[in-house]
């Protein structure tokens, strides 16, 4: 289980996360919605240990990400797909995907490369193994980012606004891949502005507002009319996103 308990994160005098509680069971897809600046991406960065907590605790299968030794184990169980791809420009697609399995998991090279090729085939990029990131479109680079994360065989996949830098056609390609992952039971925490897509693939919807978790509800319940009546801010957010 991935557990976020009373987590607070400050940047100077500004509190970005304020007492957030969240638990994700294996096999669940949980989407995190909220306006820009609500703390969504910071939550992901705290879970993968890129930001130090100011209060609270995060554990991945009981490994505390605040403890260096535990963080190494936690990162073997989770993987992150970033908003801006974060591929190494001097490495080929194959090298980008196999780097962490070789260095972190200590996989034999032949095993890591075979897994990478299989993943590339699954996302329609079997012919791009020797290409460099600069030779790829944005959608292709994001597909490589997803392959790189999946190459770690993670129990938990963290997705941080993975379509925000893509045009509509590329967005559709990436979302189709994520939908397939959701159907296979991949555990995902999905930070997104893609409201209707989140509605289709999620077991639960979490809504953050000013760093606080406003609601954590089953997907059907989140989109029910009474939620909008009880939480006008959510109704306002959904109305705006649908117009956009």
Automatic annotation (TrEMBL):
Concerning SUPFAM superfamilies, the annotation shows: P-loop containing nucleoside triphosphate hydrolases
Report the residue ranges that make up the ABC transporter domain in this protein: 2-235
> Would you say which domain of life the source belongs to?
Bacteria
Gene3D superfamilies for this protein: P-loop containing nucleotide triphosphate hydrolases (3.40.50.300)
Q: Name one Pfam family in it.
A: ABC_tran
Report membrane topology.
Peripheral membrane protein
Q: Name one GO cellular component term.
A: plasma membrane
InterPro entries assigned: AAA+_ATPase, ABC_ATPase_HisP-typ, ABC_transporter-like_ATP-bd, ABC_transporter-like_CS, MetN_ABC_transporter-like, P-loop_NTPase
Its keywords, alphabetically, are: Amino-acid transport, ATP-binding, Cell membrane, Membrane, Nucleotide-binding, Transport
GO MF terms listed in the record are: ABC-type amino acid transporter activity; ATP binding; ATP hydrolysis activity
Major site of localization recorded for this protein: membrane
Query: Where does the record say this protein resides?
Result: Cell membrane
PANTHER family membership? AMINO ACID IMPORT ATP-BINDING PROTEIN, GLUTAMATE_ASPARTATE IMPORT ATP-BINDING PROTEIN GLTL
The similarity comment for this entry is: Belongs to the ABC transporter superfamily.
Q: What is this protein called?
A: ABC transporter
Q: From which organism does this entry originate?
A: Labrys okinawensis
Q: What is the lineage of its organism?
A: Bacteria, Pseudomonadati, Pseudomonadota, Alphaproteobacteria, Hyphomicrobiales
């Amino acid at each position: 289980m991935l557990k976020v308990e009373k987590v607070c994160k400050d940047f100077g005098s500004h509190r970005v996360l304020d007492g957030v509680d969240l638990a994700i069971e294996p096999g669940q897809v949980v989407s995190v919605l909220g306006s820009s600046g609500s703390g969504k991406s910071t939550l992901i960065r705290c879970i993968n240990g890129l930001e130090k907590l100011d209060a609270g605790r995060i554990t991945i299968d009981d490994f505390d990400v605040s403890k260096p030794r535990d963080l190494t184990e936690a990162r073997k169980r989770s993987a992150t797909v970033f908003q801006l791809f974060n591929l190494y420009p001097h490495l080929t697609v194959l090298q980008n995907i196999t780097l962490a399995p070789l260095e972190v998991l200590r996989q034999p090279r032949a095993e890591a490369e075979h897994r990478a090729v299989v993943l590339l085939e699954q996302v329609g990029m079997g012919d791009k193994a020797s290409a460099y990131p600069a030779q790829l479109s944005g959608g292709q680079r994001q597909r490589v980012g997803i392959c790189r994360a999946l190459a770690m065989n993670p129990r938990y996949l963290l997705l941080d606004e993975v379509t925000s830098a893509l045009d509509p056609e590329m967005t559709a390609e990436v979302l189709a891949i994520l939908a397939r992952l959701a159907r296979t039971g991949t555990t995902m925490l999905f930070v997104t502005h893609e409201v209707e897509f989140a509605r289709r693939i999620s077991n639960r919807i979490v809504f953050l507002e000013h760093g606080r978790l406003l609601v954590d509800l089953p997907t059907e319940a989140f989109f029910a009319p009474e939620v909008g009546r009880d939480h006008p801010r959510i109704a306002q957010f959904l109305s705006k996103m649908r117009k956009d």
